[in-house]
Specification:
The chain is mainly α and 183 residues long. 64% of the residues lie in helices and 0% in strands. The chain has a domain of 111 residues. It is elongated, with a radius of gyration of 19 Å.
Length: 183
Amino acid sequence: MPRKQSVTKDMLLDAAFELVREKGKEDLSARHLAERAGCSTQPIFRIYKNMGELDDDLFLKCADYFSGYFELDSDYSVMPFVNFGMTFISFAKNEPNIFRMLFLSENRLGKSTYDLVNGGSKNYVINELKRIKGIEPSDYESVFMKVWLIIHGTACMMIRNEFDISEKETVKLLEDMFTKIYE
């Protein structure tokens, strides 16, 4: 008789990721995860002490997925923060459940929004700030907060279907925002 396939931590994490991606964090339970992974709940609790431990690993997997999204080339504009903003807004629009988990939930393993969008050592935010002529590092925080309010607000409004504008209109909005901040 063939041996049953052993359930691994990676298998459970992949199943949890896909479940959250499709249905949202609210739908993640041991029972739903077991169904998705094609196993009983026993292997889940053999591998994880509790669902909170799984949530932590899942959060890190989602954060890595988000960071990889920023590595995709986007060429909307030469202005600082426009490509960055469009990538973030596109992520929210295309991956609303992962976006909610990363940016609109309470448990973020001590990671701030800035930590997530900066991509750790990839320095996505810092690289954008360095592209702005005539600003000093001492002004980085203030500048980032100004552009971030528009970028994050736009993303949140789009996933709630409160702000349905075209890609071209969104690029124009971001370019106008950047221009107004630096007039």
